[in-house]
Amino acid sequence: MQRTSHRTDRNRLRYSGGALAHSLSGTAWRESLEMRRSDPTIAVAVRVGVATLIALVGGGLLGHQEVAGFAALGALSSAFLRYEPFPRLATKLACVGVGLVAFAAFGATLGAVGLTMWLQILLLSVAAGVSFWLLTAFRITGPGPVILIFAAAGAAGFAENAADVGLAASAAAVGSAIGWIVAMLPALSHPHSPARIAVARALASVAALESPGAADVATARQHIARAREVIALGGDPRMRSHSHELLALLDAAEKVVDGGSHDTAAARRADFHRFEAELRKVRRDIDIPRSGASVHAIPSVRGVDRFFGFFVEGVRRLGDRVIVIGVARVVVASLVAGWIAAALGMAHPLWATMGAMAALQGANYRQTVQRAIQRLIGNALGAVLAVVLLVLDLGYWPLVVVIVVLQTVTEMVVTRNYALASVFVTAMALMLTGLGTGIGADVALSRVLDTLVGVVVGVIVAALTLQRGDRAHLTEVTRELPRNSRECATECVRVS
User: Vertex 249, ends 246 and 255: CA angle to 5°?
Assistant: First the structure.
């Protein structure tokens, strides 16, 4: 029994080495550079850009340029939950805003009490785990918990006394309020847009069933179920008539999936593509797809559940084993990366903490490697862009324009390729860091080095803690490994 256990441990360790080799493979790097198809992004990007602009302009006009960056970070709450129905968005986005304010206040407090960098890294690593835990459990999608830690880290470097803590928290609160208002404005003119996008995604998923396999069919069913949920949670009387049409389209899509025939999917593919294209438009004068069906009952959801139903579900998931393990990985990786950067004498070790955390936001090992590569590439190129901008020695108002443009472009490309988005995120983050205080071009190099430490540590921690949920991924990875590595990988999958 003990011998079997030792053999299993050795196999796991050997396979972790093989998994690490995957991070250096050509396949991993090619996947990181692929451009994906994305849902509508221009409207969302413009909203986030407008929210950021209002926050920065307000800070400048009120004479608080030194904390305008925290207001801009608060306004970034508008980038979260872009596919959520508006009743649910209202509540979840408010929670994001509260979280941003709390983390900014927490980080500012760490700076104000004069804690050493070693202790700041420790406490912010724990905070990183908490933010990952809550956002994952309550399914708050978007930029992720790294934004909360960025706010905390920035506030820690800014605050020197209690007054600074109040300034940073207040600025974040104002920015969060701006972000909430801007994100909710479309509910007045386009209350149906989340439901339309959800149905469009479902139709696209069904139309993609070239040769239906278990994974493809499961994905299509998941998208259909999600679309029905979004329609039910909408609850706006103005969209009731259109909701019946959307449900009819989902019924048609579900029949194709249930049929399980490639010919059936092929016969409806053109229709589904046409309906999908119409549903993705935001104009109010479009030709709404007609299905020919009469009336479809809209699932009934209590008013309270539309706004707060996710709380109960989220609380149940707080103890989910996979999520808890993910929290532990984030805390350990963030802590180790930050302390290594500090031990090496790097100027901004908290950036290493954020680099490790950002890499571990991937849903599985392959995505972790992908995000690590993308973040590294994006940071390197973004640092070059930042150096060019810093050399220009722009004043506050030109910097506002640059930051807003960078943020808007980020939101336009983030769902297509994270590496490309990271280029603009890195430049924007460095501009925000120097907003009102000024920074040198050497900070850009520090950003790259700290991020390198973070993503390397993140990938190593991920490889050493591979989970059963990675089995499908492991099978794909082993095809790229040498024969002896494949054999040990197969054994690890079998015994895990």
Answer: 145
Say if CB 3 and CB 476 are below 8 A apart: no
Task: Give the C-alpha separation, 5 to 60, whole Å.
Answer: 63
Q: 353: Cβ–Cβ under 8 A, 6 or more apart, which residues?
A: 121, 124, 125, 128, 149, 153, 334, 335, 337, 338, 341, 454
Indicate if the alpha-carbon torsion angle 276, 279, 285, 289 is positive or negative: positive
Q: Which domain holds residue 16?
A: 2-25+481-495
Q: CB-based burial of residue 29 (10 Å sphere; 0-12 exposed, 13-18 middle, 19+ buried)?
A: middle
Could you say which of 235, 260, 281 is where a domain stops? 281
Tokens 């099978």 belong to residue: 475
Does residue 401 lie in a domain region?
yes
Radius of gyration of the chain (CA): 24
- 246 and 85 in contact (C-beta within 8 Å)? no
- Calculate the CA 454 to chain-centre distance: 18
In a domain, 293, yes or no: no
pTM of the shown model:
0.84
CA separation, residue 79 to residues 84, 103, 143, 407, 421 (Å): 11, 17, 7, 10, 13
pLDDT in tens, 164-177: 999 999 999 999 99
Rounded to a whole number of angstroms, the distance between the first and last alpha carbons of the chain is: 16
3-class DSSP assignment, residue 242: helix
Which residue reads 């680099």 in tokens?
Answer: 355
| 239's tokens | 């969209």
**pLDDT tens digit string along 102-143?**
999 999 999 999 999 999 999 999 999 999 999 999 999 989
